[in-house]
């Protein structure tokens, strides 16, 4: 009787315990839903940035993963993974009872956690948010409940697809597609049986088997052989087929992707533009984007050769040179040289802004032509000139030379300071600023200078990219195209977003044609003769600020506009040992010619439009012999310190009132002459890579491939 009572109470306790456990399990089940978010690293796909050909990689950003549909993973690869990791995958309920019991016991007793997790459990642990990697009974119980729920709510194929795209395979490869590339240099759909079995082997110890040698290689071969054997046991391979398999040859591991040279600057510009276009850093690092840039690899190399091959070895380290090339009809920045990224995070083409000097005069010319004046309009070229707004600071021409009343062609050919001050007064400084802004110079860089008498002489600071784009507006019949460095962005789902730059008519077509005509005279007869391309027409303008603290040459053909600047990072005079103090028509023009000669090689020779004589009938002053070969353009006011960031540039620096040289009277027409080719020789251009070839892209514009 006593034994029966004890037994009865024991049964009651056990039953109560079961009920309590069932109740607790029910509560836990109800309180443990499938997480509604995934771990960021589990689904993130890195983005790849390409040159304009869409094939050559510039940089990779984020996690190396490329998701692939299960249907594109060969059956033998799937079978290998199942044989290695979870043979009962298609039959179990998402958990392994034996494996889970073994793992729980190991956790409770403090022993090393053993294997036993199913593919579903591994996915849950690595895929969903809210599950830590700590070894605890609570975490394991939570994993089990979620795994069961996932198995009930999702198909087995869905689980396997997510698993194959999530699991880490070593060599920095996340997911089976990236792993196939990392280990065998091919897509997962091209893997053979032996290769698929090796990837299944790697899952167990990805770090050890990533590049095995010695004992690790022996262990990797043993693990691979066990996977092949398991595939025969599951029926995935026949005995003869298994016996025919040989350990696969592994591809040499790639070194971690490193940005070199100009690629560091390219990545920064691409990232900045993506951010402006609404792509977050998370999108870039984890969105699996394919980003095709406007940069042409061959022209990028040509830009670097032009700078390094032209500048003498004695060039001081503080002298910085920037180059930017923009396609006028698309606004695409096809090439640039930004300096040495190991020495400065700020590049010389996009970031650095230095005083424009006389390269700003074409904007004044364009404003005048677009507001009713013509190339035959006469302006005062006498020196010095006193302006009512600032009578205490007379504006001189270089050397104090006076030119008398001259037309606008002569004014820009000889870069006459006083003529452009007079011209700006005639057309109105605000209209000059509006025109420059319409052509691509940001208003905030102009506004603080617009009321200064010297505004038309280039006291505002600009970047090489901005100046190239502004001149490109003239080459494009007065239509300004939004400057950009991205051609297209394709997301992980294959949706392609093609960049369509904004276009605006900055000045009239006739005004642009007349301005181009006048600027051609600069290269043919004026201050920019060192930039001539003897097989095609060139229009351009030199620029030299006071004391040569910034020197420029900007020029263009109908197909390509390029700006070259030189300055010092301490804002001192650009003085090259053996070459002396620099002017825009010297080394900057030679760098420009070296680049453009290579960039235009093989491109069709296109002609500029004839001048249209806007305003009234043209009648231009012809260049005189003494106009040819003049040292350089007349210098403008003291340049500001170049701008690397948000620091505001100083306003209205003082004029330097230079006395004319003793051997040159102000009214004397005889001008000093320097022949650059005789003094310095032609620029050195190495032809170490294939020449660019002409082609057209989809919208009919030139393409530099």
TrEMBL record:
Region entry Disordered, spans: 605-705
Q: Which residues form the Penicillin-binding protein transpeptidase domain?
A: 325-559
Keyword check for Glycosyltransferase = yes
Where in this chain does the record put each Glycosyl transferase family domain?
62-231
Positions with biased composition (Basic and acidic residues): 622-640
Tagged with keyword Repressor: no
Keywords attached to this entry:
Carboxypeptidase, Glycosyltransferase, Hydrolase, Multifunctional enzyme, Protease, Transferase
Q: Where is the composition biased (Low complexity)?
A: 682-692
Q: Where is the composition biased (Acidic residues)?
A: 656-668
The record, for Pfam families, names: Transgly (PF00912), Transpeptidase (PF00905)
The cross-references to InterPro entries, in alphabetical order and at most eight, read: Beta-lactam/transpept-like, Glyco_trans_51, Glycosyltr_51/Transpeptidase, Lysozyme-like_dom_sf, PBP_transglycosylase, PCN-bd_Tpept
Residues of the signal sequence?
none
Record field: catalytic activity = Preferential cleavage: (Ac)2-L-Lys-D-Ala-|-D-Ala. Also transpeptidation of peptidyl-alanyl moieties that are N-acyl substituents of D-alanine; [GlcNAc-(1->4)-Mur2Ac(oyl-L-Ala-gamma-D-Glu-L-Lys-D-Ala-D-Ala)](n)-di-trans,octa-cis-undecaprenyl diphosphate + beta-D-GlcNAc-(1->4)-Mur2Ac(oyl-L-Ala-gamma-D-Glu-L-Lys-D-Ala-D-Ala)-di-trans,octa-cis-undecaprenyl diphosphate = [GlcNAc-(1->4)-Mur2Ac(oyl-L-Ala-gamma-D-Glu-L-Lys-D-Ala-D-Ala)](n+1)-di-trans,octa-cis-undecaprenyl diphosphate + di-trans,octa-cis-undecaprenyl diphosphate + H(+)
Name under which the protein is recorded: Transglycosylase domain-containing protein
Q: Which organism is it from?
A: Nonomuraea ferruginea
Q: What is the lineage of its organism?
A: Bacteria, Bacillati, Actinomycetota, Actinomycetes, Streptosporangiales
């Amino acid at each position: 009787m006593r034994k029966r009572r004890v037994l009865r109470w024991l049964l009651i306790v056990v039953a109560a315990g079961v009920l309590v456990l069932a109740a607790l399990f029910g509560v836990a089940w109800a309180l443990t839903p499938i997480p509604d978010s995934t771990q960021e690293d589990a689904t993130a796909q890195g983005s790849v940035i390409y040159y304009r050909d869409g094939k050559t990689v510039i940089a990779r950003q984020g996690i190396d993963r490329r998701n692939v549909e299960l249907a594109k993973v060969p059956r033998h690869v799937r079978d290998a993974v199942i044989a290695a990791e979870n043979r009962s995958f298609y039959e179990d309920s998402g958990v392994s009872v034996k494996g889970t019991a073994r793992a729980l016991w190991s956790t409770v007793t403090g022993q090393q956690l053993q294997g036993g997790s199913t593919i579903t459990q591994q996915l849950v642990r690595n895929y969903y948010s809210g599950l830590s990697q700590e070894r605890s009974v609570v975490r394991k119980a939570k994993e089990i409940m979620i795994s069961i729920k996932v198995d009930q709510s999702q198909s087995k194929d869905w689980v396997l697809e997510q698993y194959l795209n999530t699991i880490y395979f070593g060599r920095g490869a996340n997911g089976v597609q990236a792993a196939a590339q990392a280990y065998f240099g091919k897509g997962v759909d091209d893997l053979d049986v032996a290769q698929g079995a090796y990837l299944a082997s790697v899952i167990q110890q990805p770090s050890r088997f990533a590049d095995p040698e010695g004992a690790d290689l022996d262990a990797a071969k043993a693990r691979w052989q066990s996977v092949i054997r398991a595939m025969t046991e599951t029926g995935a391979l026949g005995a003869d087929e298994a016996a025919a398999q040989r350990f696969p040859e592994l591809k040499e591991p790639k070194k971690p992707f490193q940005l070199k040279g100009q690629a560091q600057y390219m990545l920064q510009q691409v990232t900045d533009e993506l951010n402006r276009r609404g792509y977050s850093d998370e999108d870039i690092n984890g969105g699996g984007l394919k980003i095709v840039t406007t940069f042409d690899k061959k022209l990028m190399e040509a830009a670097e050769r032009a700078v390094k091959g032209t500048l003498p070895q004695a060039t001081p380290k503080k002298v910085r040179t920037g180059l930017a090339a923009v396609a006028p009809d698309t606004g695409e920045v096809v090439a640039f040289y930004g300096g040495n990224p190991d020495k400065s995070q700020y590049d010389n083409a996009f970031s650095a802004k230095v005083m424009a000097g006389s390269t700003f005069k074409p904007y004044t010319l364009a404003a005048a032509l677009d507001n009713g004046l013509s190339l035959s309009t006469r302006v005062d070229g006498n020196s010095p000139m006193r302006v009512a707004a600032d009578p205490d600071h007379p504006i001189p021409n270089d050397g104090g030379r006076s030119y008398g009343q001259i037309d606008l062609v002569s004014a820009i050919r000889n870069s006459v300071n006083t003529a452009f001050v007079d011209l700006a007064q005639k057309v109105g400084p605000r209209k000059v600023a509006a025109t420059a802004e319409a052509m691509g110079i940001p208003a905030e860089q102009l506004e603080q200078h617009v009321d200064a008498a010297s505004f038309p002489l280039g006291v505002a600071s600009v970047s090489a990219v901005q100046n190239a784009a502004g001149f490109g507006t003239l080459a494009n019949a007065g239509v300004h195209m939004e400057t950009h460095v991205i051609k297209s962005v394709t997301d992980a789902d294959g949706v392609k977003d093609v960049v369509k730059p904004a276009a605006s008519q900055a000045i009239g077509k006739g005004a642009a044609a007349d301005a181009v005509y006048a600027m051609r005279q600069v290269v043919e007869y004026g201050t920019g003769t060192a930039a001539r391309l003897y097989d095609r027409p060139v229009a351009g303008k030199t620029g030299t600020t006071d004391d040569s603290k910034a020197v420029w040459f900007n020029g263009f053909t109908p197909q390509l506009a390029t700006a070259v600047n030189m300055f010092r990072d301490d804002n001192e005079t650009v003085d090259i040992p053996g070459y002396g103090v620099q002017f825009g028509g010297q080394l900057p023009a030679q760098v420009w010619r070296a680049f453009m000669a290579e960039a235009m090689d093989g491109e069709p020779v296109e002609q500029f439009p004839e001048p249209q004589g806007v305003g009234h009938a043209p009648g231009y002053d012809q260049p005189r012999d003494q106009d040819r070969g003049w040292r350089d353009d007349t210098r403008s006011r003291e340049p500001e310190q170049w701008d690397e960031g948000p620091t505001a540039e100083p306003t209205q620096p003082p004029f330097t009132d230079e006395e004319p040289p003793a051997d040159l009277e102000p009214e004397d027409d005889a001008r000093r002459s320097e022949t650059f080719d005789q003094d310095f020789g032609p620029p050195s251009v190495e032809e170490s890579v294939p020449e660019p070839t002409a082609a057209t892209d989809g919208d009919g514009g030139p393409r530099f491939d």
